[in-house]
């Protein structure tokens, strides 16, 4: 079955960096566009970044453009999110998913605070 295991979150000061990882299983990873999402307390889950399965092209939410970078390793079935210049408003639980899946992992908590 489709499964996602996110890791790499933590507590970081404003301006700091974190690298999130998401290990996927249960499907042919290389064939799917992968995305990172986040959900802050009291808010809807939102898409943060996406990476294509075909040409590796990427798209980002305006709120993270220029600060976050999504990448993937098709040999490790893993998608990454490098987050730099973190802001308090980036505080959320971060999840990964693929196009067409309604399965969600446990997510990884990112807290940006001084």
SSE topology:
Blueprint: E1 3-7, E2 10-12, E3 18-25, E4 34-39, E5 46-51, E6 58-60, E7 68-73, E8 78-83, E9 92-98, E10 108-112
Parallel strand pairs: 2-10
Antiparallel strand pairs: 1-3, 3-8, 4-5, 4-9, 5-6, 7-8, 9-10
Topology, number of strands: 10
Order of helices and strands: EEEEEEEEEE
Helix content: under 10%
Compute the CA-based radius of gyration. Answer: 13 Å
Question: How would you describe this structure to a colleague?
Answer:
By secondary structure, the chain is mostly beta strands. It has a 6-stranded mixed β-sheet, with no helix packed on it. Strand 4 and strand 5 form a beta hairpin. The protein is globular, with a radius of gyration of 13 Å.
Question: Which descriptors would you attach to this protein?
Answer:
48% strand; single chain; globular; 0% helix; four-stranded antiparallel beta sheet; mainly beta; 114 residues
Short recap of the structure:
The protein has no helices and ten strands.
